[in-house]
Amino acid sequence: MLADPNTWPDQQPAPTDWRCRWRLFRNRLLADSKFQKWAARTPFIRRIASKKAIEIHHLTAGFVYTQTLTAVVQSNLLAVLQGRIETTNSVAAMCGLTRHAANTLLTAAQALKLTEEVSRGYWMVGELGASVLGNPAVADMVKHHAVLYRDLADPLAILRHRDKTGLRDYWSYVPGGRQTDQGHREYSQLMSSSLALIADHILDTYPLDAYSSLVDVAGGTGNFARIVKKRYPDISATVLDLPEVVTEAKNAAAHDDIRFVAADMFLSPLPENTELFSLVRVLHDHDDEPVSELLARLHSSLRAGGSLLIAEPMAGTSGAEPIGDTYFSFYLWTMGSGRPRTAEELRAMCLAAGFSAVKEFKSPIPALTRVLVAEKAR
């Protein structure tokens, strides 16, 4: 269950707090139509007003930007342009569009830096387009988002009733979900491709050369463990996940000496005297009560001096607040389980579970993942 908001600490600001008084004054001013007209005509202030107007437009047009990216992915446009320059006519032919439609898509994509017109009517991949090509997980996530967007067609209804959504059915571990075999395959593919974005960041942030064994909890088909084994061939790697996920993993190709164990991390016995547990993008998918119980169980199963590695995007990440606090908040709400937590919240939960110390290690791209390591006392 989620924590009851009625039990959260009361942090009501004092009536004399100057920051609140200033913000109330600022909001009254910005909402005043006369001030808006004055700001639009006044040098220096006009530049600020123009920037704010663009920011507001981005908020209202964000879905169109996202659907432009979706059209780019669905049409295979970036692959068509990869490594070469093509005319509008050739793009139209290869993407199955009319010339006018292709020009509309190419122009829209250029404004998002996905494509670039090098001369009139000649196109190549743009700066962000190249990054998308280099990260297959982006295309997989775009395709997956079709489920989320159907749910969010009526966002207020989702906020009032989160128990029946397409996204809940997509994820096999969400209580009440009804995932199909096709859904399992799509889930595993998405986890595999998206993990490639962050696994190296995690291992660069917290090298595992001091460990001889790892138990990756809710490790899916072993993607993180496989990357660990590639970097540390001598480490013993075990993956715990639900029976249906483990069955799929065992039916796949060679696992690089990874051991798979079918287990429900909330209910099944955990490996005792473990040296290192890892939770990669796991905790934010679950509500507070089960997370607290899981942390306590992991602490109990660790050997003295053992460690718990936690890696996931977190709320309150400076410069990336819309990722943790907006995207993941709505995504996890719609999924029907979990919430993004700050590093401070996770640290407090670990300490409450019995860990003696929790340290954050600075990752290269905190917006994608942050890394905490909790230690059990020796």
List the helices and strands and how they pair.
Blueprint: H1 18-31, H2 33-41, H3 45-75, H4 77-81, E1 86-87, H5 88-95, H6 99-111, E2 115-119, E3 122-125, H7 127-133, H8 136-151, H9 155-160, H10 166-170, H11 181-195, H12 199-205, E4 213-217, H13 223-231, E5 236-241, H14 243-251, E6 259-262, E7 274-280, H15 288-301, E8 302-312, H16 321-335, H17 343-352, E9 357-361, E10 370-375
Parallel strand pairs: 4-5, 4-7, 5-6, 7-8
Antiparallel strand pairs: 1-3, 2-3, 8-10, 9-10
Q: Can you walk me through this structure?
A:
With 378 residues, this protein is an alpha/beta fold. The protein folds into two domains: 30-133, Orthogonal Bundle (Arc Repressor Mutant, subunit A); 156-375, Rossmann fold. Helices cover 51% and strands 15% of the residues. The strands form two sheets. A seven-stranded mixed beta sheet has the order 6-5-4-7-8-10-9, with helices on both faces. Strands 1-3-2 form a three-stranded antiparallel beta sheet. α15 (288-301) links the parallel β7 (274-280) and β8 (302-312). α2 (33-41) packs across α3 (45-75), α5 (88-95) packs across α6 (99-111) and α8 (136-151) crosses α11. The chain starts with 17 loop residues before the first helix and ends with a strand. 30% of the residues are buried. The model has no long low-confidence stretch (mean pLDDT 89).
Radius of gyration: 24 Å
Question: What is the CATH class name of the largest domain?
Answer: Alpha Beta
What is the ordering of alpha helices and beta strands?
A: HHHHEHHEEHHHHHHEHEHEEHEHHEE
The CATH topology of the largest domain: Rossmann fold
Question: Would you count the extended β strands for me?
Answer: 10
Distance between the termini: 32 Å
CATH-scheme architecture of the largest domain: 3-Layer(aba) Sandwich
